[in-house]
Amino acid sequence: MSKPTRFHEFHVKVHRYLGIALALFMILIAGTGSIIAWYDDLERAFNAPMRVVTPQPQGWTLHDALVIRARLEAQDPHSHLFSLQLPQQPDQSLFSRVMPAIDPVSGQPHAIGYDEVFADPYTGERLGQRMIGQPSLKGSGFFSFIYYLHYALLFPLGIGILLMGFLALFWAIESIIGLYLTLPLKLKPSKTGAKQRSFMQRWSTSWKISRGAPPARRLLDLHRASGLWLWPLLLIFAVTGFALNLGGIYAGVVHIFADYAHFQEQPPRPPLKQPLINPPVDWFEAAALGQRYFAQEAEKEGFTLGKPAAIEYRRDLGIYFFLMHTSRDLLDRQGTPTETDSPATAATIAIDARDGRFLGLQLPTGQRAANTVTSWLMALHVTAIGGRPWQVAVSAFGILVAGMSATGLLLWWRRRKARKPKARAPLAASSGMAGNAGIVTPAPLRPDCKR
User: How far, in Å, are 248, 262, 402 from residue 272 at the CA level?
Assistant: First the structure.
């Protein structure tokens, strides 16, 4: 046997205290993640009035959707519908993200009480609106609150996303240290010359739960073995959690090693000195330009075009982002493209809102190796591929991670209790020890001793 080195003991302490700091967060994050693996299904089931519409034979066009967007914005002049998500199924509603409009007099944003609005793409009827993350037990807001908890906890959005990004980074570090600590220590040469077990034979113990072992040992085995079996997923979800919340930092790190583009986090040009509120290129012209540019790029890059997916205007950049499904999309088991509201997993064209210039193309796969890998990892995280089996797997994974975090806390608590010094029992004097009130006074500790 070999004693742990100082290097090993240092990492034991880092793993322990970092794990304690992360445990409650991880229980909440993993628990909510196991629910939102079914987010779209739950939204359609419990928020049907805003999510589900009756298909109409005449259908709808991109122009119709843009007219509806303008109408919804006109209904509340204090709102700015900056991101329009186009339905991909006949019974899906038209969904738009909202931010406050800028008061032209004061230059300050108006106060509005919602950041999402839904409409019928066939009739233009306003189906409802809500503030994502607002605590609610109603079907219209409950699962959006769970979703918000998953990526921002109870903090304001900017602070929550920043915190969650760093928590994901620490989670990745904790996972790597945890893997290292399962590796068996280096053996000292045997004095008798007896044959020692190989590295793999000794490591195999860490993958198992000992039968008949004391409860404390079984708890340790459960924590260690579950971490090993789940380790690839632990690292994938940690890295993608970091990328989803701190995409700019992720893009900067990845770009050091490989060509990578992320228009939303690292746009084609820096922010403007002043937001461009009323751009010369309007939404209708931007949509027409987006389709034209996509047709040109498809011929040049050799991909085919599907349905338009979304259009977004960033007034801080003066840039439109036009998203479209293409043959470079990732598909689920039913052949349905992945979600459309993330530029990491949908083809995106950037258009200058000042003069309509083409600013760049970002494809989810086949254009840049780093984008292709990231798109796959992102799609796994948000259950955009793999269909029902993967949703079940991710939901189960969330429950297991919550359980693993709980066992880690329990291990720490049991060790903490075991290390507490027991109170000394008073020593009764014998009948022959008179004059000391029946108590023996303990000798004072030497300076080099510890109680």
Answer: 18, 18, 43
